[in-house]
Specification:
This protein is about 25% helix and about 35% strand.
């Protein structure tokens, strides 16, 4: 019985980890690592200047509560400071996203 319970718990745990790493569509802003959510929605010029100055681009969720590192920052070069929808793989433990596609919100 303990073995069955242990196997069931392991399956549930692996399922939860797989769900966290799943692709999902997320709306938010492309900002910079220094300002984070501070300029999300207003301050594209600041975001661009900070990134040109060496800061890394980050993704800020629509609620402006979470800031995520971007694993592949080259994909967001045309979207600095913009409100976007991304299809991404989220890594909760690393607080990062790998962006598969991105488009501006109109």
């Amino acid at each position: 019985m303990k073995r069955v319970l242990s196997l069931a718990m392991a399956a549930l745990l692996f399922g939860a980890v797989a769900a966290q790493a799943a692709d999902s569509s997320i709306s938010g802003w492309i900002s910079d690592s220094m300002c984070g959510a501070k300029h999300a929605g207003s301050g594209a010029a600041c975001v661009k200047k900070c990134i040109q100055g060496g800061m890394k681009p980050v993704f800020v969720d629509a609620a402006k509560k979470q800031v995520w590192a971007i694993d592949n920052p080259d994909v967001v070069k045309s979207f600095y400071g913009d409100h976007v929808t991304v299809k991404a793989t989220v890594d909760e433990s690393a607080k990062s996203v790998h962006i598969d596609s991105i488009k501006a919100v109109k």
